[in-house]
Every structure is written in structure tokens, then in C-alpha cells.
Design goal:
The protein is mostly helical and 119 residues long. Helix content is 66%, strand content 0%. The chain has a single domain, classed as Four Helix Bundle (Hemerythrin (Met), subunit A) (Up-down Bundle), CATH 1.20.120.910. It contains 4 helices and no strands. Bound molecules: zinc ion.
Amino acid sequence: MDDPLDSATLQVLEASLRALETQLSSLLRSTESDAKPTPLKDNASRLSRMDEMHNQSILRANRTVTQNRLLEVRRAIVRIQSEQYGICQDCFNDITIPRLKAYPEATLCILCKDQREKP
Ligand SMILES: [Zn+2]
């Protein structure tokens, strides 16, 4: 069976994964202090405190999404290094190159992804 991922394409995908890794980790670093619980100010009104808690919960949820994506990106880099990259984890078919270019951290082919997302 032919490997549809030639080394040039793989290099491009690895470069975008590494760029994503840098971007996501710096995003996490820059939001780190904002996600920490802030001491309650005596003079803060109840409303502004609730606002602040609400904003923090959104920020934490976003950070969780970013952390998970960063993990996926790092796993994808490991898969490139162990030459298991671009293979669907469910059906073991090749994930198409356009899909990998759009989501270099993808672990499923589009068919299996659709399948999983069905209710
Ligand atoms: Zn599949």
C-alpha cells in the first residue's frame, strides 16, 4: 500500500503542529494568572464579584479546551516521530491530507469522526 503522506507534506504538517504547540502554550501562560482565584476585595460589590467569578469560569473552561488541544498536538508530534501519524484510530485507514492540513492533530478520519458525533 502506498503511503500518501510524502515526507515533504509530513514536514509541513509537523511544522504546523510545532507552531500550534508554541501558540497554545503561550496562550496558556498568558492566561495563567487570570485563572487563579482572586482574593475578594472588601470594597467590591456583590455584583462585580459575581461578574468576576463568571468571567473566571469562562476563562477556565477556555483554558481546559486549550490544554486538551495542546495535549492532542503533542500526541500528534509523537505519532509523527513514531511513524504512526495520519492513521485513523478507529478504522486504521489513512486520514486524508486536506483533513490533516486543516486539523494536523486529528486522530480520526472524517467518516469515523462523523460516526462518533452522531447522537
Ligand atoms: Zn476512520
